[in-house]
Amino acid sequence: MRSLPKILFILGSVLLLGTFLSPIWRITLEAPQYPKGITMYIWINKLGGDEPGTLQNINILNHYVGMKMIEPESIPELKYFPKVIIGMALLGVIFGLINNKKLWITWGIIMIILGILGIYDFYLWEYDYGHNLSDEAAIKVPGQAYQPPLFGSKMLLNFNAISYPYYGSIFIGLSLILSFVASFLKGKQDIN
Amino acid sequence: MRSTTFIFALLITASLFIYSGCGNGNSTGGAMSHSSAAEKVYVAPGEYDQYYEFFSGGFSGQVTVHGLPSGRLLKTIPVFSVDGEKGYGFNEETKPMLMTTYGFVPWDDSHHPKLSQTEGVHDGNFLFINANNTPRIARIDLTTFETTEIIEIPNSGGSHASPYPTQNTEYLVAATRFSVPIPQKDVPIDSYKENFKGTFTFISGGQEPGEMDIAFQILAPGYDYDLAHCGKGVSHGWTFFTSYNVEQANTLKEKNASQYDKDYIAAVNWKKAEEYIAQGKFKEWPSEYYHNYYSDKTHTGTSTKMKGVKVLIPSECPGLVYYLPTPKSPHGVDVSPTGEYIVGNGKLSADLTVHSFEKMLAAIEAKKFDDEIDGIPVLNYDAVHVGTVEMGGLGPLHTEFDGRGHGYTSFFISSEVVKWSLETFEVVDRIPAYYSIGHLSIPGGGSMKPWENGKYLIAMNKITKDRYLPTGPELAHSAQLYDISGDKMELLLDFPTMGEPHYAQGILASKIMDKQVKFFRLEENEHKYKALTEADTKVVRKGKEVHIYGTMIRSHFAPDNIEGIKVGDKVFWHITNLEQDWDVPHGLAVMGANNAELLIMPGQTETLVWEPKAEGVYPFYCTDFCSALHQEMQGYIRVSAENANTKMKWRLGDEAFGE
Predict the structure, then answer these.
(1) Is residue B185 pLDDT above 50, yes or no?
(2) CA 20 to 30 Å from B436, out of A11, A36, B149, B508?
(3) How far apart are CA B81 and CA B619, in angstroms?
(4) In angstroms, what separates the C-alpha of A155 from chain B's closest C-alpha?
């Protein structure tokens, strides 16, 4: 089927919009007095929790050690990341219609760069929250930072912080894979 | 022959008493082997009990919630008595719950917890309980374990035969324990026979929060009405009430009310009553009563004075009430799971009387009446009686049922539980209770479907004597847990209870635990004086009244410094708990307050009234340990002289405000 690569590429681009359907990252704090843990979900455009009060509850815990309040309004990424995603999906559809392998590979490379930048940006936020502590904190533990890990788990005082990508990230991954599969198939077609 | 057996039974009972008395309390008191009983009641740390069991607090006026089989106390729910711990009846929101036509009543005697029913089975929606002294019925919402509704019962002197729901909680019932002049009037007490009356009351709205109301009352002869049960299955549509003092004595009742061989069980056809109401065959009496309702949206109780009840007079309403003669001042009247047997527990006898519903209907049809009292036909005893459990013990009080064809009856005087067959009416097993059992409870055993066919039985005992470490003159009442799943009943556990547990009901935990409210949503808070963020906090003076719109969150009050209060002011602390997490209540205690603390659940607003009497600076603080900075959760309020010109000011940290 000649149009298969094109369909796959366009499908992959549209799949990016799936990041609006599910969070892309999840951070869970575990401690004995929180038997079910406190879980924060990071969406492409918002922050959420497993309960309506989750963000407030995390902020209450964080304030003892002088961490800044996590306020979605003060995180500009939550406003422009959705635009980037929509933009890339649109660009993907256009590139798909142009049906040019080089453009597709370019698109894939831009996505990879954006992804790396996104994760680095996320790391910087985590670093800032974890290290930029108030001098007036009620509890000060010398040498202790509260930066959660990017991947994996880490003890932060009495809390075990567990951080992993969530379902929303699968859409980005699928999108990338499809773009490269499409490019590969397209390449074989072009040789023939 | 019969009397020999009787004496023999008494001797056995007496010897059991002596045996246990010699046990010095460190014997297991008849329990099965320690280790096997311990295994059956052991609930490992962090694990849950299988049942909730709701105990009446008796003269504490409250309800306690225990887990079974461990017997652990899970919660005390304030119902009819003020409770400083929770601020119940002290804060402005719950004071209306205790309003009556007699004014604010801060105490009562709570008796019979009954779970709401759907199709004769406990549905886990609500728990109801009656106040015996100032007649009322309360609803406890089983999603919050809070008292949310209380209705007063007019034309009643002591509400004991209550609240006993019908099969689908169409009605809750009540009857007057003490007959009184109805309507009340000033008459000589000696004119009892002439002037004193009883009432049966049917309360609607059991399944609709906020809708409880007196559907109708039935005027009855002036006896003492003791307990009740509604029919189910075949007898659905009827309610049965026991009476004593058919002698109509008004003094030295312990003798004078115990003379006749038989008293009556009143059988009330409430479906017939509905017909008479629909036909307008009622009297409209101008009786007054209170209806109090607490909303979990406004977090506020409201009292409404109601006026007017519909009263049915049996002599004008044929077929409404019948009397079933029943020996010796019956206490409990219990209906078997199918609804066929009506068991009269004649408390001054050794026997248990069982009537048949089917026979009763046939007797009514054939008009087998021996007498008629105030228009109420007295059915012929032999025409309704189907069996007698002979020599069950001494002093039967109350019977419940398993799902395997047995009744279990408490015998107060012989202090034992007796198991008998619903087929042969013969005793099949007996086991001592320590001591003087009143009611007993099989989870679901009063409904059409005992849970797990009846696995446990709880005895509620009036006397403990040497059962526990002594605690001065006043000793705890107690409950005992028996395993009744086998042929022989086995004593497993013995634990003290609050007040006097007149009755208890149990339900599988799974019917309730998953629908618990964990906190109240702030965005749904409709309290008149709420402050949903710290930015909304303020202090407002209205003449001599000062309203503090405050908040609390780990770990501070907003505001926490308040100035400008004057001696003679009435200060309303309206405090909203801003937490939105489970198990984070905060308390508010103000030095010198003449009422109690506030204990505010997450998302809730409560109000404490404080009237400072002297100048000075008063601390206030959080009482419920909430965080590592709980000790710091405190503030000051400054009180100036009445004529001082101290400006109204309040602050939290750097945020200061004022007039």
Answers:
(1) yes
(2) B508
(3) 28
(4) 19
User: Chain B residue closest to A65 (CA)?
Assistant: B628
CATH class name, domain A4-191: mainly alpha
Compare CB distances from A64 to B521, B553, B629 and report the shortest one's residue: B629
Domain spans in chain B, listed from the N-terminal domain onward: 2-515, 522-658
Q: Check residue A71 and give its pLDDT.
A: 94
With the C-alpha atoms ordered B255, B256, B258, B260, is the resulting torsion angle positive or negative?
A: positive
Question: In which element (H, E) is residue A40 found?
Answer: strand A34-42
The pLDDT tens digits for B73-94 are 999 999 999 999 999 999 999 9
Residue B241 has pLDDT above 90, yes or no: yes
Reported as half-sphere exposure (CB side, CA atoms, 13 A), residue B392 has a value of: 36
User: How many CA atoms does the CB half-sphere of A6 hold within 13 Å?
Assistant: 12
CA distance A39 to chain B (A): 13
User: Which pTM was predicted?
Assistant: 0.92
Residue among A75, A178, A186 at smallest CA distance from A126: A75
SS3 A148: coil
Cα atoms in the 13 Å half-sphere on the side-chain side of B407: 35
Question: Which of B199, B206, B207 has its CA nearest to residue B310?
Answer: B199
Give the pLDDT of residue A2.
Answer: 83
Q: Which residues of A touch B586 (CB under 8 A)?
A: none
Q: Do B627 and A64 touch (CB under 8 A)?
A: yes
Name the packing angle between helices A77-98 and A4-15 (round to 10°): 170
What's the burial of B452, exposed, middle or buried (CB within 10 Å: 0-12/13-18/19+)? middle
Q: Report the distance separating Cα B459 and Cα B398, nearest Å.
A: 11
Distance between B393 CA and the closest CA of chain A, angstroms = 51
Residues of B in contact with A60 (CB under 8 A): 553-554, 579, 627
- The shortest C-alpha distance from A56 to chain B (Å) reads 8
Question: What pLDDT, in 10s, does the model give residues B445-504?
Answer: 999 999 999 999 999 999 999 999 999 999 999 999 999 999 999 999 999 999 999 999
**Quick one: closest CA in B to A52, which residue?**
B580
Task: Supply the pLDDT for residue B328.
Answer: 92
| Chain B contacts to A (CB-CB under 8 A) | 519, 521, 553-554, 578-581, 602, 627-629, 632
Give the tens place of pLDDT for each residue, A85-116: 999 999 999 999 999 999 999 999 999 999 99
Please check the confidence at residue B560 and state whether its pLDDT lies above 60. Answer: yes
Evaluate if residue B18 carries a pLDDT over 70: no
How far apart CA B489 and CA B408 sit, in angstroms, is: 10
With beta carbons under 8 A apart, name residues in chain B contacting A52.
521, 580
The pLDDT score that the predictor gives to residue A191 is 81
Which residues of A fall within a CB distance of 8 Å from B628? 64, 138-139
Q: What is the ipTM of this complex?
A: 0.86
Nearest CB neighbour to A139, from listed B578, B579, B628: B628
CATH class of B2-515: mainly beta
Q: Do B581 and A52 make contact, defined as CB atoms within 8 angstroms?
A: no
* Mean pLDDT taken over chain B: 94
Using a CB-CB cut-off of 8 Å, the residues of chain A touching B581 are: 51, 53, 56-57
Distance between CA A160 and CA B433 in Å, rounded? 51
User: Minimal CA–CA distance to B601: which of B635, B630, B626, B619?
Assistant: B626
Using CB atoms, pick whichever of A52, A60, A64 lies closest to residue B553.
A60
Q: Is there a contact between A104 and A78 (Cβ–Cβ < 8 Å)?
A: no
Q: Which CATH class is domain B522-658?
A: mainly beta
Nearest-Cα residue of chain B relative to residue A55: B580
Domain ranges of chain A: 4-191
Instruction: Tell me whether residues A52 and B580 touch, CB distance under 8 A.
Output: yes
Would the CB atoms of A51 and B521 count as touching at under 8 Å? no
